[in-house]
Structure prediction request, 858 residues.
Amino acid sequence: MKPEIQRVFSFYFFLKKKSSRSKMFFLLSSASILLALIIRFYQLAGQWTESGQIIFQNILMVFFLQFLIVILALFYGTSIVSEEVEGKTLPYLSSRPLSRASIIIGKYLSSLAVTSIMLVSTLLISYFILNLDRDFQLQDIWTIVRYALVLLLGLAAYLSFFTFLSTWLARPILLGLVFGFGWENVIQYFPGTTQKLSIVHYLKSLLPQYSSASGRLSFLFIRLEPTADWLAVLILVLISVVFLALAALLFTFKEYLVQD
Amino acid sequence: MSSIREKGYHHWDGQFLDRPRAFWPIARTGIKLAFGRKHFKLGYTFSFLPAMIYAAIIYISERLEDFKFIAQGGDKLLQVNPNFFKSYLTLDLLYFAILILMSIGAAGLLADDFRHKAVQLYFARPLTKADYLLGKAGVVIFFVGTLTLVPAILLYILKLLFAGSFAFFLEYPWLILSILAFSLFIVLFFTAFILLASSLSNNRNYVISIIFGFYLFSEILRGIFFVIFRSPFSALFSIAANLKQVAAGFFLVKPPYDYPWYLSFLLISVFCFLSYLVVKHKVRGVEVIK
Amino acid sequence: MTAVIEARNLSRWYGNVLGISDLNLEINQGITALLGPNGAGKSTFMKIITGQLKTNIGEARIFGEKVWNNRHIFRRLGFCPEDDAFYEELSGFEFLAGLLSLYGFSSLECEQKARQALDLVELTDVADRKVRSYSRGMRQRIKIAQAIAHDPEVLILDEPLNGLDPLSKRRIIKLIKEFKNSGKTIVVSSHILPEVEALTSEIILIHQGKIIARGDIYFIRDLIDTHPHMIRVKSPQFRQLAQTLAGEDYVLKMAFEPLEQAVVFETHDRDRFFNRLNEMVLTSPIIIDEITSPDDNLQAVFDYLVGK
Prediction:
């Protein structure tokens, strides 16, 4: 199955690269760069005394964590099957010598690759804009790598869940919206174990500013009862794998009828 | 001898008769199709929940003595005044419900026509572009209007009925005009917003992403800019905040943000105008349109 | 010898609506046309044998193997769907090469095969244009190209001549016949009767999910004993001709077309009728200008069979 996944990945990576929608989403991701530039100019004008690191951690990460990865995963994930069904291009795939599971996994990986490029490139650029005047130490490189990895884990988990929705429902985007921007936001206000019923809880557990929120920006954060790092990573990986496996399984046995 | 035409649709080049409601068949069909979509009726019903709650509040406020046991300390909450109507028309839940409903029932208004190349079907008939756009807008106007203007007017009438006198009207004689004006303003905004989003793609999923993405992104921007600049003007980035600010101006109450409400009014008006230009251009971009 | 395509007790529902009902058929090498009105079950059958749909009852096999979820079969099968749907942002070449890459061909092979297929459908000149900019006919041809590019043994073509101009239709018909001559098995579905007649004589008539007739069109026609054959004879002495033949027992009915100087005969024994006609031509002064069979075509056969 591995060569089949690779073939599907290559084809769809090429397709998504060319797609005008990917360009639009890249533009949206670049909003973080614009924000970083605005903040930087404000800083240089002496109006902001917080360090670039603090600003990045506490402000831009809100944009990445609670908006960008969700909207990218939502659009790309829910489109994995629905765009083929609604676009009536599914016969081109299902009449090729490819296992149905490899179609889903290949498309998932291509979506993950494209969105990861959007995410990491804008993340790195906006980070460097905010921290241009500092001498970079290993610690700083580790910080940005850590943020990038956490966001990528989150992207993978959300994408996997939305891919599952795409194989299950005819119109997955609305439920995806309710989950991504409704449930994920509301559940954070719940204490105890209920918080753990969201993907964002584990992402925040892995980010230091959420685990030890204090100082002038602490009002931004809801009371988090963090999960241990290793457990949070494991759960996120599990979510990604389990929902992808479910999606692959469902797609293997389900038939899709075109409805206008 | 008449010219030989190739097969296909051609832009109508005959006479345009004076038909005052040429847009109505398009709007009527759009409304019927929206109701035919799965889950739309359920969503539409639930969207009236805030109105029902507010109606209950009006009832309780007129029967405070009977509800003394729950009204303790809650009499401020149960005050029916201009702020009450303003708060209904600026409820975040109501806006969210409108966006969900429009995503189900109206996201494809223009997108589906572009996808199925159906625009040329319209313009091969004696239909002007204004009729077409008005017909499509009619769908959004209908649903947003029934969730904002109609319940707000009914709440006002309920207040008068339950009060049993015109005292409320005499106390706030301009209120009914405020309700009408602001409801129309919201209807206009959402019409422009939904049609703009629908015109930007022929894929309904993408349109829904644009609708919610833009709305939520505006909120995030407001939050981020407020943290940075600590300025009330950061509210200008948020759709909901701008609508609340305008509402305060229409209902003559204290605005939530410390800047003139007409700035928000201007911003939203410019947005609506630009949306109209974009939509007009997009429909023009399809072949056969003159 | 097992047939290339087999269907046994094939039934498929869409909720309460019957798509196909207890279909049994075998398709061998050559061109077989599936003919029927919209909603007859042609597309349902094609979707089943190309792995788009499952069966409710029965099974479909290609080369003796089940179709559903059997990806190995698709290496030997090419499918041209009915819907006008593409990855619009790709050029014609990219579309073909991309789909070819899913077979595991190398980049060079993909390129070569894509160019070959484009050449066959005469789209070489527009290969680098986006599919979005193609005309209806070009889009149909690129769809056929993606079905043939990997040189499959079985071709399933759902309404392949839709949207094509007469010249393109002739080219595609010629192409399909060339595939047949190279030993391929081709199943074509259509509701355009003259084109089916031009393509093949092996026809399966489908109506309301059932096969109502199968075989050569003339063979099918002969089976219809309940419906007499109609033969139209044009002659300056049409009344004398009618008078002569009226006494024959195999002539059931006559209708005159005075303006055309023709008579339409109905007979249940074509052979005897033509033999007598030939005799008359040789022995009598009656001149015959034209002989046609108004109902000796697919539409008439179909109308008879569905009881119109």
